[in-house]
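Q: For a teaching handout, I want to show students what a protein-ligand complex looks like in token form. Below are the inputs, and the small molecule is D-xylitol-5-phosphate. Please produce the holo structure.
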Amino acid sequence: MNYILSPSILSADFKHLEKDILEVKEAGAQYLHVDVMDGKFVPSISFGMPVIKSIRSASDIVFDVHLMIEEPIRYIKEFAESGADIITIHLEACEDVKATIDKIHSFGLKAGLSIKPKTEVEALIPYLDQVDMILMMSVEPGFGGQKYIEESTGRIEKVRAMLKERNLSTDLEVDGGINVDNVDNVLKAGVNVVVAGSAIFGGNIKEKTRKFMEKLEAYNE
Ligand code: DX5
Ligand code: ZN
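A: Here is the structure, written as tokens, with D-xylitol-5-phosphate included.
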């Protein structure tokens, strides 16, 4: 299993996004987590295709695009063309989850499926063998800087067990409230892709990224 850090640019300083992206990449992050919010599926609005297109030329880092938008099927083509490598959609936001996953795959991209903290993990079962990644929200989606919801650890364990039962080594990502002090808990629970926003951006980005990388590398051995 490959252990990956995916810093969320939602917490970056948008006036020097390129600099921030280059710093996390240089310090070892393999993915860049890109949070798109529509003001409907979640209360906030972040940014969309033009920003992704613009930062695409800054780095070849993997763009891990997390769509917190209603009926994302309407925009898969646009996000694919903007430079996304992985597109994650919310189960709660789709009328036809399978059609949305198929659409992401039709552009040759990896498809992720996410659930909010209150959605039963069993809802994922029909899609486990169809997706490349499962994203477990460990805060209510919408804002960076929230506190990790403790019940998420047990939910992550359950999903990793559900995958194992089916002989699937699907990536399992966690998003929300992760810092260097609690990351071990989610890694032990079965996560292999870690999103971190406020714990990385602001202050010494490289140093903070390296601290996370040290934690992850211990699991790669
Ligand atoms: C929240 C977003 C997260 C957010 C994480 O809705 O999906 O990716 O940026 O931020 P932190 O790590 O600060 O909780
Ligand atoms: Zn996210």
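A: Two things your students might notice: The longest helix spans residues 205-220. The mean pLDDT is 98.
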